[in-house]
Automatic annotation (TrEMBL):
The chain crosses the membrane at residues 38-59, 79-109, 130-157, 169-192. This is MTNR1A: Melatonin receptor 1A. Keywords: Cell membrane, G-protein coupled receptor, Membrane, Receptor, Transducer, Transmembrane, Transmembrane helix. Residues 1-189 form the G-protein coupled receptors family 1 profile domain. The lineage of its organism: Eukaryota, Metazoa, Chordata, Craniata, Vertebrata. It is a multi-pass membrane protein. GO terms for molecular function: melatonin receptor activity. Belongs to the G-protein coupled receptor 1 family. It is found in: Cell membrane. The keyword NADP does not apply.
Length: 237
């Protein structure tokens, strides 16, 4: 669970940096993101993800929470570690991603308003749609995960006094809201990405076609049984 959560935000950050370099620094992009460098970036992201979950085993922050019937990160075990988690696993990545997408939007608006008529960014319609898709993924990720991280930050200030004042329904709602974010990605890609739209339609057509085929086959079964001649009818008397 820790790998999936931390890996998600680190990958979103890596994609945002990639889009920023691709659009705002297109002349340097091929050098920055050569095949070798790209492989190194992917390895770096997952190395940082593995390193990020290691302290949990020494701090003892992974505990069973009866409110959500699950073993999860306990925000009240260590104030210092909780603040570090919120900062390095949420606030810092969100700040980096916000900066990257803000710079991209500024450049897009400048080009469309002809503020920079001589500048031609490396942004094709297909690339722009992909950028919009990842931007929406980021926005929804930030919205869904912000409440849980905000609660963790508040709890870290004074765990003994504040944790008892947080309503149970608020924590449960923020927890499931955070993990519900994973369900939204399939919907986002289906709505905004043409490749996913085509595949979704193809899958639905396949399912419906097979369903009709099996229904027709089952309806024809009695007729086939009736029309099938009995072995006795072929015997010579």
């Amino acid at each position: 669970m820790g790998l999936s959560v931390i890996g998600s935000i680190f990958n979103i950050t890596g994609i945002a940096i990639n889009r920023y370099c691709y659009i705002c620094h297109s002349l340097k992009y091929n050098k920055l993101y050569s095949v070798k460098n790209s492989v190194c970036y992917v390895i770096l992201i997952w190395t940082l993800t593995f390193v990020a979950i290691v302290p949990n085993f020494f701090v003892g922050s992974l505990q069973y929470d009866a409110r959500i019937y699950s073993c999860t990160f306990s925000q009240s075990v260590s104030s210092t570690y909780t603040i570090a988690v919120v900062f390095f696993h949420f606030m810092l990545p969100i700040t980096i991603v916000t900066f990257c997408y803000l710079k991209i939007w500024i450049l897009v608006f400048q080009v469309r308003r002809r503020v920079k008529p001589d500048y031609k960014p490396k942004l094709k319609p297909h690339d722009f749609r992909n950028f919009i898709t990842m931007f929406v993924v980021f926005v929804l990720f930030a919205i869904c995960w912000a409440p849980l991280n905000f609660i963790g930050l508040v709890v870290a200030i004074s765990p003994e006094t504040i944790i008892s004042k947080i309503p149970e329904w608020l924590f449960i709602s923020s927890y499931y809201m955070a993990y519900f974010n994973s369900c939204l990605n399939a919907i986002i890609y289906g709505l905004l990405n043409q490749n996913f739209q085509r595949e979704y339609k193809r899958i639905l057509r396949t399912i419906c076609t097979r369903k009709v085929f099996f229904q027709d086959s089952s309806n024809d079964a009695p007729d086939r049984i009736k029309s099938k001649s009995s072995p006795c009818s072929h015997k010579t008397i």
